[in-house]
Amino acid sequence: MAASELQHEQALKKFLAERPELLHQLDNLNPLLAQAKGETQAQFREERLHEAFEEEAERLGLFAWELTLQLTATTPQDYETQRLAVHREVAEMAGMDWLEYCDLYGIKP
What we know:
Helix content is 75%, strand content 0%. The chain is mainly α. It has two domains: 1-72, no CATH class; 74-109, no CATH class.
């Protein structure tokens, strides 16, 4: 099962708490930029936060949902168990053989 919305919100909070410089940037966004996009300042801020989160996941070589699990898992083993479960689910939905999927994405089953 993929990371829940609650897990993702918890991960975003932890991500932001660990990056005071990002928090400062988000708290000081130009309101005219939000207005130009037809968004509220809160929507614009949320979008920038999600972009930063996805960029960090990419920098780490992870999918954003993997970063969510990494930030919310209670132990490294818990993270790995959840991560593999989601990858298995994706492989099944794609109709792919598990070992073929693992090989394609560099996963050690």
